[in-house]
Each structure stands twice: as structure tokens, then as C-alpha cells.
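go over whats below:
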Amino acid sequence: MKLKSLLAMALAGVMMISAGCGGGDKKQETKAENKAPQKLTMYWGALEDFMVKDIAKFEKATGIKVEAVRMSSGETLARIKAEKNNPKASLWFGGPADGQIQAKVDGLLEKYVSPSAAQIPDQFKDKDGYWTGVYIGYLGFASNDKLLKEKGVAAPKTWDDLLKPEFKGQVVSANPGSSGTAYTMLATLVQLKGEEEGLKYMKALDKQMKNYQKSGTAPARLAGQGECMVGISFLHDAIKYREEGMKDLVLTAPAEGTGYEIGAVSLIKGGPDQEAAKKFIDWCLTAKAQEIGQTVGSYQFLPHPDAKQPKQAAELSSTKLINYDFSWAGANRSKLVEKWNKTIKE
């Protein structure tokens, strides 16, 4: 009996030790899980080299690992709508704010007022806290000087100049349905001329088009490559291509006024990496973070008052801007694109 009792006691001790070890491992696992690096998935609307540099800087500063998908505004909006019930990304960065305004109207964004947003002027952010501006770009014309000289025509200086016979089949724009840049053009012309006259102009401009591109950066690049005489683009993109060796590019802006973009950042509703996304928003709204783009050729103006503006953009400072209504443009995006599609097909 004594031997049996000793064996029973020894067995009980082994079981207690095993249970204790098991509990310790569980605590260690929990601790390791808590220390696991955060991750962030985002949709990116600015240029790809800007994306690569920005993400590298953020990862170094925070240790958060980032996956980004580069898409035009129309594509991003369509994807977020399709993923509404099971969001795959938590953050939308870049591209004209019109798209993010529509996403707000459609209930696809989460309100987040970053502490860093206090430094951004009110005209560059949503009054309800759903999006905040990270850069500003002006819409205009990127023309190929060599082709202009061959035709004996000056670079366009007004919207109506694009309708000249010399430019027939020689103008390239993106498609307003896929591109935030092209939608800015459509909304600009409707705001300038009124809906009826604006759509009538777009129908006339359609007859001048060589083709429509998916991305808003493509028209300036194609003009620089000599594939067309005029590309309608944000002018900072044309400056980038000119600096990269497309020396024939000439930049002009419509004398009667042009629209502009506020490249914005926002939090996607129900996304999987909300805390990491908020950290990115806090970071990207700082002056130092906003200065990163110009190191890789993204020469947009910057909304943070302490940010160093890119010197390459100085030539655009005299551009005449219209009083572009972002709220109207965002709320009417789907309807206006549908009307444009119908108009050019008539």
C-alpha cells in the first residue's frame, strides 16, 4: 500500500508539472502573438514609385508591414463596393477626393479624425472627418513640341483650342469611368459650362480623341513619347516625365480656368487592419511624410503648411483654377459618368 501511495503521489506531481508547463507555453504563445508585427493592406491611387518609397519609409518608422495595390480611382471605388461585406483593405490613399467623397456617400468609409489633421487647412479635408488631403494637383495639357511644330500649331491654351482641326485624332485622355484624372476633367467642364453645354463640349472633344486610357497618368506619358500631340493630365505628372527625359513636353493650362485634385487618404469601413491604418493616416499627414513624393518625381503641391513645396512645381503657380466643387463632383460621380457615356455614344 505504501509503495502504491508513493507511486500515486509521484504520478500526481508529474501531472501538475505537465499542466504547469502547458499553461506557461500558452502564456508565451499569447505574448508572442501580441508582439507579432502589425500589417496593413491599402489601395493606392498615386504613382507607383511614390507608393514604393512612401511605404518603405512608413515600414521603417513603425515596423508595420504593408501590402499595397495600385489602381485608378474608378477601379478602387468599384473594388471597395464589391468587397463591402468583406473588406480586404483598410486604407485608400491618393487619387482625387471625388472618388472618396462618393465612397463616403455610399457608406464605404469610416470616420477618422487624425490628430495630424489639425495642421491641414479646412479646404483640404472633409468637414465630417471621412477624408483628408495629402497633396494637390492641377489639371492641364501636356503637348509634344516636336509634333506641334510639324503641324505648325501652338500648344492649346484654352479648352476650345482642343477642338481645332489640327488636333483631330491627336488628343488623348483617360476614361472618366476608370480614372479620377479624367473625371476631374469632366466635372470641371460641367462646372464651367453647365451640364448641357459641358456634355455637348465632351461630345465634340470625343471626335478629337485618338483614344481613351485607363489611367490618368498615361496621356502625358504618351504625349512625351510622341504617340499623340496633346495629353490631358495632371501637370505634375507631365513634369515628372519631362524630367525623366521626355524633353519635348510643353505644359499649358486652360486660360478660362481648370479643375484640380485633392489627393486624399481615408479609412475603409470594416477593413481588417484598422489600427495600423490609423497609424498610417497619422504619419502621412505630417509635413515630413508629405515631402517624400517629390524625392521620386511626384511634384504635387502639399497642403501641410510646414511642408517644403517641390521647386519643380513653381511653374504651375500662376495656373488659373476654377472654384471646383468637390462635394458636388463626388456626390454626382456615377450619374455624370453615365451621362457622359450616353452622350459620346449618341
User: Anything to note?
Assistant: The radius of gyration is 26 Å. Strands lie at 39-44, 65-70, 91-96, 109-110, 131-144, 171-174, 209-213, 230-234, 249-252, 260-268. The mean pLDDT is 91. The first helix runs from residue 2 to 35.
